[in-house]
C-alpha cells in the first residue's frame, strides 16, 4: 500500500507520524513563511482561509518564525488558529534572530529588506544567548497568542556554530526541562551543520530545507543516517527546491535554491517529469511524497499562502504513485 494514500485511524487523508520521542506530526505540515508577505503581499483574510483549509484537510503541524515578515507570520498564524483546541495541533517557531525596533525606518515608510513586503518596524539581530532565546520565545508567544509552542528551532545558525551549539542549545534544553517547549532542535538550509547538532547536542528534531528532495539528496549522506541512529526526527522543508519541482512541466525560467536554475538542473528535472508522466503521476506529486519514504523523515512542510495551495499540496500528497516509479526515477 502507498503510505501516502492510507487513512489514519480517524479516517483522515493525512496520516500522523510520531517522532522517536513521541511528538505527533502530520505527514504534511503548513509552512507559514508566506503568511509574512514573502515576496508579495498577502491579506489577513487569505491567510486565515489557508489555515482553515489546512485544518479541514487534516493538517495539524504548523511552522512559523519571527523572521517571516518580522513577526507578521506568527501574528497571522496565531489569529487563524485561535479557538482551536490547543492539544490538537503542533506548532513550531524559531529563535536566534532577535527583532529590534526601528521606529525611524518605519516612520520613513521603509520596507523590510529581507524579501518580505512589510514595513521596516524592526531589524534582525543574531542572538543565541540564554536571555536572547528566552526573550525571543516570550515575544513569539505574545504574537501567537499562545501559552506554549511545541517545537523550538534555532534558525539558520550557519555562521554562529559556537554560540548556537553552546548557549543556544543550552537555553532550549532548559526550556524543554521546564516544560515550556516539548522538543528542540535547529532548522537550516544545509545538512552538514545539522548533522553536527544531532551528533553533539541533545536535540529531538531538526528541519532541513532543500537538502532532501528529488534533486538534492545530500542529507542522505550525513544527516539522515545520523538522525536515525540517534533517534532524532527530521522534518523536510523546501521540497520543491524554490519552485523547480512545483510544476508538472518545468519551465526554462524555473528557480532553484533561490536563484535561476542552471540548464543542467532543468534538464534533470525535465527527465524526472517525463518519468512521472509515464506512470500517470506528476513531478510535484513525487516531490511531496519522496522525502516521506525515508524512515528518519517525520513530516514534509510545504510553504503555503492560499487555500488553493493547501488543496494542491494535499492532492499531491494523496496522489497514487506506483512503486515502480521510484526505481525509474533513480535512472533519471
From TrEMBL:
Gene3D superfamilies documented for this protein? NADP-dependent oxidoreductase domain
- One Pfam family named in its UniProt record: Aldo_ket_red
Occurrences of domain NADP-dependent oxidoreductase (ranges): 28-330
Cleaved signal peptide residues: none
**Composition-biased stretches (Basic and acidic residues):** 1-13
Record region (Disordered): 1-23
PANTHER family (UniProt xref):
GH17980P-RELATED (PTHR42686)
Any idea what this protein is called? Aldo/keto reductase
Which species? Lysobacter korlensis
Amino acid at each position: 500500500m502507498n503510505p501516502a494514500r492510507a487513512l489514519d485511524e480517524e479516517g483522515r487523508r493525512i496520516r500522523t507520524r510520531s517522532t522517536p520521542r513521541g511528538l505527533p506530526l502530520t505527514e504534511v505540515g503548513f509552512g507559514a513563511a508566506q503568511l509574512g508577505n514573502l515576496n508579495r503581499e498577502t491579506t489577513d483574510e487569505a491567510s486565515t482561509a489557508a489555515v482553515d483549509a489546512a485544518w479541514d484537510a487534516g493538517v495539524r503541524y504548523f511552522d512559523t518564525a519571527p523572521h517571516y515578515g518580522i513577526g507578521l507570520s506568527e501574528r497571522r498564524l496565531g489569529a487563524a488558529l485561535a479557538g482551536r483546541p490547543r492539544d490538537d495541533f503542533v506548532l513550531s517557531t524559531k529563535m536566534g534572530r532577535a527583532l529590534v525596533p526601528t521606529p525611524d525606518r518605519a516612520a520613513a515608510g521603509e520596507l523590510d529588506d529581507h524579501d518580505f513586503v512589510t514595513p521596516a518596524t524592526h531589524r534582525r539581530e543574531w542572538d543565541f544567548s540564554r536571555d536572547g532565546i528566552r526573550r525571543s520565545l516570550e515575544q513569539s508567544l505574545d504574537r501567537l497568542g499562545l501559552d506554549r509552542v511545541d517545537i523550538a528551532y534555532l534558525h539558520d545558525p550557519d555562521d554562529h556554530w559556537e554560540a548556537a551549539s553552546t548557549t543556544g542549545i543550552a537555553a532550549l534544553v532548559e526550556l524543554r526541562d521546564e516544560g515550556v517547549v516539548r522538543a528542540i532542535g535547529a532548522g537550516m538550509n544545509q545538512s552538514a551543520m545539522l548533522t553536527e547538532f544531532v551528533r553533539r547536542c541533545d536535540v529531538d528534531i531538526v528541519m532541513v530545507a532543500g537538502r532532501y528532495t528529488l534533486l538534492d539528496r545530500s542529507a542522505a549522506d550525513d544527516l539522515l543516517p545520523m538522525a536515525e541512529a540517534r533517534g532524532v526526527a527530521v522534518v523536510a522543508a523546501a521540497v520543491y527546491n524554490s519552485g523547480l519541482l512545483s510544476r508538472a512541466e518545468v519551465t526554462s525560467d524555473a528557480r532553484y535554491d533561490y536563484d535561476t536554475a542552471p540548464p543542467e538542473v532543468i534538464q534533470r528535472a525535465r527527465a524526472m517529469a517525463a518519468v512521472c508522466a509515464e506512470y500517470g503521476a506528476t513531478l510535484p506529486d513525487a516531490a511531496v511524497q519522496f522525502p516521506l519514504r525515508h524512515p528518519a523523515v517525520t513530516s514534509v512542510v510545504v510553504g503555503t499562502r492560499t487555500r488553493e495551495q493547501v488543496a494542491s499540496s494535499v492532492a499531491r500528497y494523496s496522489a497514487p504513485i506506483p512503486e515502480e516509479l521510484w526505481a525509474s526515477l533513480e535512472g533519471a
